[in-house]
Write a structure and sequence with these properties.
GO terms for molecular function: signaling receptor activity. The protein is an alpha+beta fold and about 120 residues long. Helices cover about 20% and strands about 30% of the residues.
Length: about 120
C-alpha cells in the first residue's frame, strides 16, 4: 500500500517483534516508523483493522534506553499524544489510532516500510 513518501507491506501471518524485524530486513525494508500522529492515523485508516495489533519499528531495546525506533532515533513524543511508559523488553504495536506497548515475544502481524520510488 502507498502512503505519502513511503510504501508499506503488511504481513498476513504472525511473528515476534524480533522475527518481524528480521523479515522486513530480508525484504530490503524496515519496520514501519510512523513519523507523527497524522501518519499513524493514515496508516491505521488504510489498514481498516482497528481491533488488531501490528508490530511497528519501536522498542525499548535495553533498560534505561527508553523507546527507540529501529533506525536508532528517538520518538518525538510531542507528535504522539500518549505515554507508553519505559519498561525494558517492550515493543510497540499499532492498534487503532494508538501505539501500545506489548511483550516483544508476542505473535502479531507486522508492517514493513520502504521509501517510495519515483517512476
Amino acid at each position: 500500500m502507498l502512503g505519502s513518501t513511503k510504501c508499506y507491506w503488511v504481513s498476513e501471518r504472525m511473528n515476534s517483534w524480533h522475527g518481524s524485524r528480521e523479515d522486513c530486513g530480508a525484504r530490503g525494508a524496515a519496520m514501519a516508523m510512523p513519523w507523527d500522529k497524522d501518519e499513524l492515523d493514515s496508516l491505521n485508516e488504510t489498514l481498516r483493522k482497528p481491533t488488531r495489533h501490528f508490530w511497528i519499528g519501536l522498542s525499548v531495546p535495553a533498560p534505561g534506553m527508553g523507546w527507540t525506533w529501529v533506525n536508532g532515533s528517538r520518538p518525538d513524543w510531542s507528535r504522539f499524544p500518549q505515554d507508553l511508559g519505559e519498561g525494558p523488553g517492550a515493543c510497540g504495536a499499532l492498534k487503532g489510532d494508538r501505539i501500545d506497548p506489548r511483550a516483544c515475544d508476542t505473535g502479531l502481524q507486522w508492517i514493513c516500510q520502504t521509501e517510495s520510488a519515483r517512476i
